[in-house]
Amino acid sequence: MSTQNLYQKAEFFQSAPDLARCPTEVGSEVAFAGRSNAGKSSAINTLTGNKKLARTSKTPGRTQLINFFQLDEQRALVDLPGYGYAKVPLKLKKEWDKNLSNYLHKRESLKGLILLMDIRHPMQEFDSMMLNWAVEREMPVHILLTKADKLKKGPAKNTLLAVNKSLNDANIDDLVSVQLFSSLKHLGVKELIKVLDTMLELEEPVLINDNLDVMLDDQLDTHENTDQHN
Ligand code: GDP
Known about the structure:
- The protein is α/β, with parallel strands linked by helices.
- Helix content is 39%, strand content 20%.
- α5 links the parallel β5 and β6.
- The longest helix is centred in the middle third of the chain and has 17 residues.
- Guanosine-5'-diphosphate (GDP) binds next to α2.
- Guanosine-5'-diphosphate binds next to α2.
């Protein structure tokens, strides 16, 4: 079975408000995180070909929950609460931070993190916080610079290289990789699937950052910047 089919089999499984109420740990899971409006739901839709899944996570009452989508008996995708949009009291925000931190630090079946950032506003405070937590645990992180269709080829490439350089400078480029992504243009889906396959132990590791130039040319060749939606 091609692994793309596996992601298309994703089904909502369970929601949890905190680590203690997460499903029993079996096998491997990869979590998706991003600030609100980063394009997380759209990316999950694009990956799974299932609009219902992302809607599930946006159902009122579920937006601040950890939502589990099962792929098979051994594997799951996890949608973490969106972040930083709504004005919430500081006390509540601290509680969410604690829940996220607990989940990222202590969930043993969690094998990797997909961190989504709008290409026009990468590496905000939330992103650094998530990166730090993941790196503390030596967990691989893959960054999607989303809505890449919003920028022309040159600026998109420059942002990708700048983010990659900051990972290099921070000495975390062995754990953290980065790519361009656009749900609108279906840009970067293949690369994302490769990374997920590795994190979920379906395939041998790929060294994304080492192949950045090749991948970039590959991606950008098929990338025309005409639309300016949203
Ligand atoms: P979430 O809050 O992170 O789940 O973000 P959504 O997936 O709901 O997307 C937020 C907004 O960005 C919506 O208006 C989407 O239509 C838009 N959006 C998401 N992905 C893309 C993309 O690849 N390209 C463009 N141009 N807009 C996008």
